[in-house]
Specification:
This protein has 142 residues and is of the alpha+beta class. It has helices spanning 6-13, 61-74, 79-83, 87-94, 102-123, and strands at 26-31, 38-46, 49-58. The chain is built from 5 helices and 3 strands, in the order αβββαααα. It has a 3-stranded antiparallel beta sheet. α1 (6-13) crosses α2, α2 (61-74) packs across α5 (102-123) and α4 packs across α5. The model has no long low-confidence stretch (mean pLDDT 94). The chain binds FE2/S2 (inorganic) cluster. Residues 32, 35, 37, 59-60, 62-63, 101, 104, 107 line the site of FE2/S2 (inorganic) cluster.
Length: 142
């Protein structure tokens, strides 16, 4: 015990925004090359603003907490603002993760960008924050 702070435990035990948005404007699924866990995020976008986000995670508690807090961070933001979310800002929002669990937040970071990438593909939009992002990359920059 004591490995996780209270906020991480709270999001793990009572995750917000679990599920999948019907007729989502973008959906991204990402598998961690580190542990093989999977995460998918779906988003609803109106006037370039993310009005809803949901997640499904087949992964560890840190991944569940990271993706849940990530959906909360996305909702209400413009697409550009949401692209500025990184695994670091997710970890900060959670009040920290153990070092061996940082890759779980990277999973959430990639799932966000994959969902927005899908939205951009469908709508033909271009976002500076997606430059160089490859949804199939298994790079796990920490
Ligand atoms: Fe796989 Fe956390 S151990 S996402």
């Amino acid at each position: 015990m004591g490995m996780y702070n209270e906020k991480v435990m709270e999001y793990f035990l009572h995750p917000r925004n679990v599920g999948e948005i019907e007729n989502a404007d973008g959906t991204g699924t990402y598998g961690s090359p580190v542990c093989g866990d999977m995460m998918s995020i779906s988003i609803k976008v109106e006037d370039d603003r993310i009005v809803d986000a949901k997640f499904k995670t087949f992964g560890c508690g840190s991944a569940i907490a990271s993706s849940s807090v990530a959906t909360e961070m996305m909702i209400g933001k413009t697409v550009d603002e949401a692209l500025a979310i990184t695994n670091k800002t997710i970890v900060d929002e959670l009040g920290g993760l153990p070092a061996v669990k940082i890759h779980c937040s990277v999973l959430a970071d990639h799932a966000i960008k994959s969902a927005i990438y899908d939205y951009a593909q469908k709508t033909g939009k271009h976002y500076a924050g997606l430059e160089g992002f490859d949804p199939n990359s298994d790079e796990h920059g920490e």
